[in-house]
């Protein structure tokens, strides 16, 4: 209600404002004007009244447009002003004045029908028109009761509803549903929905820049989150002692299988093979049982004939070619060619087979080889290299030497077995065919030849071939020994040969039965090795004994020398008491008695020990006192006291006096001062005094009179001054009893930095990191590579991909098996390694 | 009688093959080797000197362009290939091993300002001031490349015309998107003629773009209003922006540390930032005396190379304030672009004198096949040198570089200026009430503000 009033007042104020403006508006017919006029001072009721409501005073008829007044206020909308009607009861007289107006009838008496009836009657009387004409009007005006433009409905709610009174709630709708199956559920859902909508008030959208800023903020948060997930990985990489970028090198195929699987048949042969291998029939047959394979293998008659024909044709062609070649060769007239050809033929085994003579010769040759083998035993592990291999056991470890040795043994076996095999194998045909004479003939010749050879070998052996390594004496000796051995064997062999020759065929047969190897083995075993051993032993023994003698001699020589030095030492100790005393005094200056005594005692002890030898030498009293003091090793003062006690008349002096007396002769302070001066002179050298050097600056009497030039004197003074300054600034300038050396070792200086380098925070840590060397000379080879490993290991030519994300547990320690760990935490690692070593021990 | 003899078992001293090394036994007792430190110091000194002697970083120049090189791109999948583009619109593919042009990509009307290749190395993307983006199919390297007489030319597989001149382009790592910088930041797909996404913030031209290799959806761009902006492709808005006192010419992400990037600044310094903290740089890399034009990280993430307007190329450690190396030649002019090769062994620079130059990343590195013993020796030398690098003499030798006169003078001048500034600051501080004057660290000094 009040709201309505207020609005009205505001509207009126608006009107006054509007009034001041120029009047304008449509030209209205008179009747309407009248009606409007009748309406003055009455509140507007509906949209139709709008125009009328504008003018309070009848004069301003043209004004219908109002600026600055919102529509609601201008009461275009009825809904806002319903209650004005109740409120604003117009006085009756006023109403009477404006009877012509229809609208005011509408508005004024909306409530009771009686009034309406009266009104109609009144209109009738006034206008003289039948009441029916007004009936419609009154009927029309009846809906005004609602004061709504449209009937109430779902799209046009009542005023009550809009103002919050008598509002229909969800409960109202739900009420009829009560008791129905889904009622409770729906109710709950509705309650929830209401709760949700209660707090969420949708505001008007913010201005765009502000909105953008918020959006950017959100994006920033997301991107930061994205970045943050990398932190652990990056940290791990940064802390890793070495990053490896050479890992993922693609070397192509890794296995034989992989290579085989990629195989593509290219040549015709390969293709045919592939066609057979990939033939489904064959593979199936193979899979089944193989019986069908045979079937598949069957060749048809035609194919067979074809193959056969082809084969024959090929053979013919070959024959033909061979024939032609032979003819061609025959045509060649060169004798050298034929000679060489024949020789080749002879050498080849083919020739030996074809020509019996040749075969015989071959057999002879082999026999000779065999005999040689038996003589020299060249293939029976007698070689030096083989011996070495056997000694080291390399043949057990490795295949190479093993095979070589096996081969040698094989050769040996072959050569020594040849005799039998010749009998048994190759010459068996002859044995069967021919009679014994022929057979006899060959061995006899062979034996003769062998004998000849052995004799020759014997002769050859006499000639020493003293060149190179063999010329060395021990080698020569060894060779000689070997030769002797061989000679003996050879002699025995010759004897044997002779025996055989004498005994004739049967004997020879007999001997043949006995395997040569066994025989020789037995004979060889007799003495030779023993001798050699003895020899070698002797050889080494000799040298050893020689060495021993020498050593002994050296010892003999050394022992007197040593004794001499010892005596000298002792002499020195004795003869230099002064130095000793100074030492003692120094100890005293440091202020502890006991220490001094202890030191002195030990010193004297040493002295006495060393003076054992020259005990016969003349000794002064001091020496004897020393001895005494040595006997009572613990306290020197006591020793003095006992000495004093022996002289009975002597009174015991006080401690200070004693000390004074004890060190009466030494002026410690003076000596120290001298020392200090020496040190100072050394570290800050005194400038040289200018002197007149004869021949320089004394040419004339004037010069001589002038003396040393002023400049030199000035310079000298300046230097002196400088020196004094330097001395003043020294650390020990004010400390009388202390020498602080300020000498800088220039060579050591270059090994130190002036300031602490950047990443290090403490001197100790830095020095620790520099302490252990990293070179291969100072470290075992197992860790040198790790110590020297660079921070980045990459390979030229390998593309490095950017980092890929992987989860890293931040709590994990850096993996220990990483080799470079030693580098950064080297000191720690070292100690731990040592500890582990100790533990293992 | 006791005789001391040296006894050695034959087993331990026998070589199985004649090529085997003789076994040497050492007593590692430190008391027996009192001079070990001096010995190693001497070795370090020798190693330092040897390094100087063998320092020959310049491998070769690649000549062929007719105008200054404006940009380069390396083929992430093929070590020998590098693309370069010049101001006259010429794009070339070079074979680094032979230092010859393999093929050319003609088509651009004006200067080519951006060049990048896809991760598989099959597609080359170029853009330029003629407002076009061109995609090219890179010819596959084959063994028959040996005939250099015929230089191939390739037609663009696609040409996309855009509204503005394009100043920068970069390809996503292992994706098929690429970003161009013009009046705005545009994200393109290979197969679309229009950008799939656009970012605009504060109407300023984007002058460089770089995708993050570790996080393929994140990219950084620098604009001509002196700002560095970080974008995420999955979001519709930029994430962060840093406004600095001077323009950032180029940006490089650390490939091993996806949150960190380094910006090459117009003031001659490089600033390493953590992508999460924009109030201060993590590290300021000073040494250049003029604007830094381009920057590229080593794939190991431990170093980056910069090219500068002062006609020099420098290599910095990722966390060090000063460069470890400077490369310059008499004929090399303003360096506009630099790249670190994909195996972290070489550095390539493109300069105004129309040449590409190939340098070794480590000046004294031995090229070619290295025997294991040689490698061990190199490692030891390096380790020893590294250990004694703080000692004055070694430090002096290792740090010594010959500089061109202009750079040397400029360094001296800037030092004087910085000193006087610092002195003035200190005096101001000492003469004012405590707390009123705050001297900002250099890491923070050049940052004006962080824009939210």
From TrEMBL, chain A:
Where is composition skewed (Basic and acidic residues) in this entry? 72-86, 527-537
A Pfam family annotated for this UniProt entry: Utp14
Q: Where is this region: Disordered?
A: 1-117, 420-445, 493-580, 594-635, 804-841
InterPro entries recorded for this chain? SSU_processome_Utp14
Task: Enumerate composition-biased segments (Acidic residues).
Answer: 62-71, 87-116, 427-441, 543-553
The highest taxon in the source lineage is Eukaryota
Its GO CC terms are: nucleolus
Q: Name where it mostly resides.
A: nucleus
Q: Where in the cell is it found?
A: Nucleus, Nucleolus
Which stretches are transmembrane? Answer: none
Give me the stretches of Basic residues compositional bias: 821-841
The reply on keyword Nucleus is yes
Keywords per UniProt: Nucleus, Phosphoprotein
Q: What is this protein called?
A: U3 small nucleolar RNA-associated protein 14
UniProtKB/TrEMBL annotation, chain B:
Primary site of residence: nucleus
List the SUPFAM superfamilies: WD40 repeat-like
One Pfam family for this entry, by name? WD40
The residue intervals holding the WD repeats read: 62-104, 105-146, 285-316, 328-369
Q: Which UniProt keywords apply?
A: Nucleus, Repeat, Ribonucleoprotein, WD repeat
* GO CC annotation terms, alphabetical: nucleolus; ribonucleoprotein complex
Q: Where is the Sof1-like protein domain?
A: 361-447
Localization, per the record, is: Nucleus, Nucleolus
* PANTHER family assigned to the protein according to its UniProt record, in alphabetical order: DDB1- AND CUL4-ASSOCIATED FACTOR 13, U3 SMALL NUCLEOLAR RNA U3 SNORNA ASSOCIATED PROTEIN
Its family remark reads:
Belongs to the WD repeat DCAF13/WDSOF1 family.
Q: What is this protein called?
A: DDB1- and CUL4-associated factor 13
What organism is recorded for this protein? Answer: Eruca vesicaria subsp. sativa
Taxonomic placement: Eukaryota, Viridiplantae, Streptophyta, Embryophyta, Tracheophyta
């Amino acid at each position: 209600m009040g709201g309505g009033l207020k609005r009205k007042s505001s509207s009126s104020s608006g009107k006054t404002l509007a009034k001041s403006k120029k009047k304008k508006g449509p030209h209205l017919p008179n009747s309407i004007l009248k009606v409007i006029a009748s309406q003055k001072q009455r509140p507007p009721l509906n949209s139709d009244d709008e125009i009328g409501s504008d003018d309070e005073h009848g004069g301003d008829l043209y004004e219908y447009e109002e600026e600055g007044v919102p529509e609601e206020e201008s009461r275009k909308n009825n809904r806002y002003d319903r209650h004005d009607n109740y409120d604003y009861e117009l006085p009756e007289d006023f109403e009477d004045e404006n009877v012509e107006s229809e609208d005011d009838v509408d508005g004024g008496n909306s409530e009771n029908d009686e009034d309406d009836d009266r009104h109609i009657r009144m209109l009738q009387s006034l206008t003289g028109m039948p009441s029916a004409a007004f009936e419609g009007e009154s009927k029309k005006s009846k809906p005004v009761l609602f004061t709504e433009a449209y009937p109430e409905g779902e799209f046009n709610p009542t005023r009550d509803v809009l103002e919050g009174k008598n509002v229909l709630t969800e409960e109202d709708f739900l009420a009829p549903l009560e008791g129905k199956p889904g009622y409770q559920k729906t109710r709950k859902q509705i309650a929830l929905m209401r709760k949700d909508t209660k707090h969420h008030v949708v505001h008007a959208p913010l201005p765009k820049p502000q909105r953008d800023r918020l959006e950017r903020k959100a994006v920033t948060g997301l991107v930061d989150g994205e970045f943050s997930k990398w932190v652990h990985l990056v940290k791990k990489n940064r802390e890793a002692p070495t990053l490896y970028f050479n890992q993922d090198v693609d070397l192509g195929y890794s296995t034989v299988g992989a290579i085989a699987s990629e195989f593509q048949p290219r040549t015709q042969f390969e293709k045919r093979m592939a066609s057979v291998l990939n033939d489904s029939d064959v593979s199936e047959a193979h899979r089944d049982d193989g019986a069908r394979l045979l079937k598949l293998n069957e060749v048809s008659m035609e194919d067979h004939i074809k193959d056969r024909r082809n084969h024959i044709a090929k053979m013919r062609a070959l024959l033909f070619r061979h024939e032609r070649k032979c003819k061609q060769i025959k045509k060649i007239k060169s004798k050298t060619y034929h000679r060489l050809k024949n020789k080749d033929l002879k050498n080849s085994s083919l020739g030996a087979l074809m020509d019996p003579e040749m075969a015989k010769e071959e057999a002879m040759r082999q026999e000779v080889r065999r005999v040689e083998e038996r003589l020299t035993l060249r293939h029976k592990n007698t070689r030096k290299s083989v011996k070495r291999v056997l000694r080291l056991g390399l043949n057990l470890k490795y295949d190479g030497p093993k095979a070589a040795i096996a081969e040698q043994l094989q050769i040996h076996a072959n050569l020594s077995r040849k005799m039998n095999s010749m009998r048994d194998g190759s010459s068996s045909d002859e044995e069967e065919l021919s009679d014994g004479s022929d057979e006899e003939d060959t061995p006899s010749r062979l034996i003769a030849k062998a004998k000849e050879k052995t004799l020759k070998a014997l002769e050859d052996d006499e000639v020493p071939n003293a060149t190179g390594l063999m010329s060395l004496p021990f080698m020569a000796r060894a060779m000689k020994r070997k030769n002797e051995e061989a000679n003996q064997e050879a002699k025995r062999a010759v004897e044997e040969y002779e025996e055989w020759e004498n005994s004739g065929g049967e004997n020879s047969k007999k001997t043949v039965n006995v395997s040569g190897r066994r025989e020789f083995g037995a004979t060889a075993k007799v003495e030779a090795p023993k001798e050699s051993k003895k020899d070698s032993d002797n050889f080494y023994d000799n040298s050893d004994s020689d060495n021993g003698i020498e050593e002994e001699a050296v010892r003999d020589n050394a022992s007197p020398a040593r004794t001499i030095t010892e005596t000298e030492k002792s002499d020195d100790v004795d003869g230099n008491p002064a130095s000793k005393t100074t030492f003692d005094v120094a100890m005293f200056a440091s202020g502890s008695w006991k220490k001094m005594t202890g030191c002195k005692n030990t010193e004297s002890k040493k002295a006495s020990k060393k003076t054992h030898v020259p005990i016969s030498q003349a000794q002064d009293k001091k020496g004897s006192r020393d001895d005494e003091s040595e006997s009572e090793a613990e306290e020197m003062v006591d020793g003095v006291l006992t000495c004093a006690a022996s002289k009975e008349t002597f009174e015991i002096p006080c401690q200070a006096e004693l000390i004074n007396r004890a060190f009466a002769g030494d002026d410690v302070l003076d000596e120290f001062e001298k020392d200090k001066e020496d040190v100072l002179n050394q570290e800050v050298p005194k400038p040289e005094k200018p002197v007149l050097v004869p021949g320089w600056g004394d040419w004339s009497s004037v010069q001589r009179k002038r003396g040393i030039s002023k400049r030199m004197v000035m310079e000298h003074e300046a230097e002196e001054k400088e020196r004094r300054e330097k001395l003043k600034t020294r650390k020990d300038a004010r400390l009388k009893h202390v020498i602080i050396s300020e000498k800088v070792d220039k060579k050591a200086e270059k090994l130190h930095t002036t300031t602490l380098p950047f990443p290090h925070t403490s001197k100790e840590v830095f020095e620790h990191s520099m302490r252990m060397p990293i070179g291969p000379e100072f470290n075992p080879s197992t860790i040198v590579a790790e110590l020297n490993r660079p921070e980045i290991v990459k390979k030229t030519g390998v593309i490095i991909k950017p980092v890929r994300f992987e989860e890293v547990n931040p709590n994990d320690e850096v993996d220990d098996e990483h080799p470079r760990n030693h580098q950064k935490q080297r000191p720690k690692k070292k100690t731990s390694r040592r500890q582990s070593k100790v533990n293992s021990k | 009688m006791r005789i001391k003899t040296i006894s050695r078992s034959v087993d331990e001293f026998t070589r199985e093959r004649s090529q085997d090394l003789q076994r040497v036994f050492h007593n590692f007792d430190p008391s027996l080797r009192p001079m070990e430190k001096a010995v190693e110091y001497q070795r370090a000194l020798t190693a330092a000197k040897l390094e100087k002697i063998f320092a020959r970083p310049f491998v070769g120049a690649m000549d062929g362009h007719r105008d200054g090189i404006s940009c380069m791109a390396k083929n992430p999948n093929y070590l020998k290939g590098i693309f370069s583009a010049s101001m006259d619109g010429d794009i070339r593919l070079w074979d680094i091993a032979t230092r010859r042009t393999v093929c050319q990509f003609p088509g651009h009307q004006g200067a080519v300002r951006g060049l990048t290749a896809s991760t598989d190395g099959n597609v080359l993307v170029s853009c330029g001031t003629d407002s076009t983006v061109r995609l090219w199919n890179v010819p596959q390297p084959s063994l028959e490349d040996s005939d250099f007489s015929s230089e191939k030319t390739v037609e663009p597989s696609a040409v996309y015309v855009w509204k503005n001149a394009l100043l920068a382009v970069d390809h996503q790592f292992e994706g098929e998107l690429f970003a161009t910088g013009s009046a705005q930041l545009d994200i393109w797909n290979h197969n679309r003629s229009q950008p799939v996404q656009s970012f605009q913030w504060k109407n300023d031209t984007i002058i460089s773009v770089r995708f993050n290799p570790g996080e393929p959806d994140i990219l950084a761009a620098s604009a001509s209003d002196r700002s560095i902006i970080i974008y995420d492709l999955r979001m519709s808005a930029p994430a962060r922006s840093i406004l600095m006192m001077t323009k950032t010419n180029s940006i490089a992400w650390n490939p091993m540390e996806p949150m960190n990037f380094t910006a090459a600044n117009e003031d001659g310094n490089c600033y390493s930032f953590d992508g999460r903290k924009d109030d201060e740089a993590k590290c300021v890399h000073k040494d250049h005396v003029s604007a830094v034009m381009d920057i590229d990280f080593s794939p190991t993430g431990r170093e980056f190379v910069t090219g500068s307007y002062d006609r020099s190329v420098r290599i910095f450690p990722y966390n060090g304030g000063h460069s470890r190396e400077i490369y310059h030649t008499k004929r090399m002019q303003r360096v506009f672009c630099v790249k670190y090769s994909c195996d972290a062994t070489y550095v390539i620079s493109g300069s105004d004198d129309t040449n590409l130059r190939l340098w070794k990343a480590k000046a004294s590195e031995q090229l070619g096949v290295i025997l294991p013993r040689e490698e061990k020796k190199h490692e030891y030398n390096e380790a020893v040198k590294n250990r004694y690098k703080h000692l004055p003499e070694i430090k002096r030798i290792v740090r010594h570089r010959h500089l061109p006169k202009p750079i040397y003078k400029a360094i001296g001048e800037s030092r004087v200026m910085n000193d006087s500034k610092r002195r003035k600051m200190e005096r101001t501080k000492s003469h004012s009430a405590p707390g009123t004057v705050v001297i900002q660290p250099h890491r923070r000094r050049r940052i004006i503000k962080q824009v939210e």
